[in-house]
Amino acid sequence: MPLSQAAGQMEAVTQIGESESSYLLLDKGLQFRITDAVNSMYNFDFEQAERGFQVMRYTYPEHPLPYFLMGLSQWWKITVATENESYDALFLRYMDQTIEKAAKMLEEDPENKEAAFFLAGAYGFQGRLHSERKNWTSATFAGKNALKYLELSRGEEELNPELLLGDALFNYFSVWIPDNYPLLRPVMLLFPKGDQQLGLQQLEEVAENSFYARVEAQYFLFRLYASEEKQPFKALEITTYLHEKYPDNPYFHRFFARQLYAVGRGKEAMEVSLEILKRIEAGWTGYEANSGRYASFFAAQYFDRMGQEELARKHYLETVAFGDELNSQESGYYLFALLQLGKLAINQGDGAEARRFLDAVKANAKRRHPAHKEARILLKENKL
């Protein structure tokens, strides 16, 4: 279908939803029509997703929503491999355009809660990228603006499910950041203190009731349950749903395997991991060394426990190769893969190879690291 024809159809049907609410965010007809595009984005079919968002931009050229969604599409390209900065500029440009359009709406109507929502969201995402890149000054500026517009966007009950994401993240991370990043404590003194448990409750509410923010809330929930909250089964429940809903999303696929491994479901973790490795080899979108590093280690661990030493060795070597590709030689997966390769070499009576792997552990790990300590013990006990 030609772009102009698709846009014309979209514009005609939009009249139905516009009578229900003055806010485009609350237009149920639009939500229904762009569900496929949003689902395509989270399923890593970016071409299909961005085609739908571009039609929206043609239909609503002065509204921030299509620019925000185009920016979100770039964000997911970044998320799967954060060391790749090639999408940064385009992501920031779309978020700047979102800010420009929303600021104009707010200037025309200072009570426009929807405009404030987009300003809070765009600045919030910019802050996330700047934090990832350790651009702390830019991250602080973006964060302060996100909080300012978050305050302005409150008070509209209908928008609450969407707005709560920012509120939830603030409540949780305003407590978490000072505890985990002492250097940022002076910065956080500028902001009011949050409530972590309230933040979790709000994330759950967004995950249940929001349209645009649902998956983003689920993303934060499974990350928090897996690490900070020490609730791996809750994290597995969410990652299972996300992988089933978006089976071609490599980030969700990777964390599904990780949570299976974390709760001791090793055989399933191995099977999921082998599928990830096949997709990397086949060149699927978003499947790269980071996913491979996880998957190869989980597969190796299973075969190691089953006594299948050759398969274990193969996948530990893959873990090391992916780690070298990512230049992440200090990561736990890399170090413990080397350590296990050393143990396998000892089992096979190959002292020279064992020493090579164990020396590599010592060369890449800090002395206090448990892998470094175990490597020293193995070298000494086996007189290598």
Could you walk me through the main structural features you see in this protein, from its secondary elements to its overall organization?
This protein is mainly α and 384 residues long. The protein has 19 helices and no strands. α13 packs parallel to α15 and α18 runs antiparallel to α19. The chain is elongated, with a radius of gyration of 24 Å. It comes from Cyclobacterium xiamenense.
Could you give a short description of this structure?
This protein has 384 residues and is mostly helical. It is built from 19 helices and no strands. The model is unreliable at 1-20 (pLDDT under 50).
Strand content: under 5%
Number of strands: 0
Rg from Cα: 24 Å
Largest sheet: none
Content-based structural category: mainly alpha
What is the overall pLDDT average?
Answer: 87
Q: What ranges have pLDDT less than 50 throughout 5 or more consecutive residues? A: 1-20
Which of globular, elongated, flat, extended, rod-shaped describes the shape? elongated
N to C succession of SSEs: HHHHHHHHHHHHHHHHHHH
Count helical runs. 19
Helix content: over 70%
Distance between the termini: 69 Å
Organism: Cyclobacterium xiamenense
Protein name: Tol-pal system protein YbgF
